[in-house]
Amino acid sequence: MSGLKFEDVGFSYGIIPCIKGFSCSFAAGEMAGLIGANGSGKSTLLRLGTGLLSPQTGVVKLEGQPVRALRGKERAALLGYLPQSIDVPLPFRVGELVEMGRTAARREHLLSCQELLSSVGLDGYEQTPLSNISGGERRRAFIAMILAQGGKTLLLDEPLAGLDLRYQYELLALLRELCRNHGLTIFLSLHELLLARNLDRLLVIREGQLLADGSPALILTEKLIRQTFDLDPLFQIPNMIV
């Protein structure tokens, strides 16, 4: 299994429970998705996985150690994280952004900036200002930065959000290729049920609890979708999704 493992993790904001008894682990080369309604705990769960938040019960382990016990640079060399919002003005060129990730890399896994940009489909963008590229290209650049860290586990919070359908498919295909070619484990949150069917594995949460975990083709039933998103019984779910 991958180095990332959640063991009976619980977390609350004040007196309000957010994550309740969550347990799972991930296989190397696996691309797993996380879906749930807004406020179900998706972002919180990913932040717990990165060590940005500390569980109040249970433990999150990375390479057999509690993730919170790892120092920042040591953790960054094992695990990469892309937050939900990255659309902030940054006065850097694409190549400079990637080099920031290389500062945390394990020396034996260093790739050149050009190789990293090529792996995410950004050949020739090294000197391009981040302000001059599209939202989809910017997400690719940040993924290259995360890859530069050299970690084998990537946690991505809504990486497809705000992208046109074409670019959602392209980015998802890129992530799948990275899993296969580099043996990465990718755990990402998303809302797009149609795209979720292309993942190796899907985890579904409701109010911080795991409802289902398995192949998207098997678990994405009409009953589960209605339960997850509190859909009105009269609402018609398109046949292309279920």
Compact description:
The protein has a domain at about 5-85 and about 155-230: P-loop containing nucleotide triphosphate hydrolases (Rossmann fold), CATH 3.40.50.300. The strands form 2 sheets. A 6-stranded mixed beta sheet has the order 6-7-8-3-9-10, sandwiched between helices. A 4-stranded antiparallel beta sheet has the order 2-1-4-5, with helices on one face.
Rounded mean pLDDT is: 88
Assign the CATH superfamily of the domain at 4-86 and 153-229.
P-loop containing nucleotide triphosphate hydrolases
Unreliable sequence segments: none
Shape: globular
Examine the secondary-structure arrangement and name the CATH architecture of the domain at 4-86 and 153-229. 3-Layer(aba) Sandwich
What is the radius of gyration?
18 Å
Order of helices and strands, N to C?
Answer: EEEHEEHEHHHEHEHEEHH
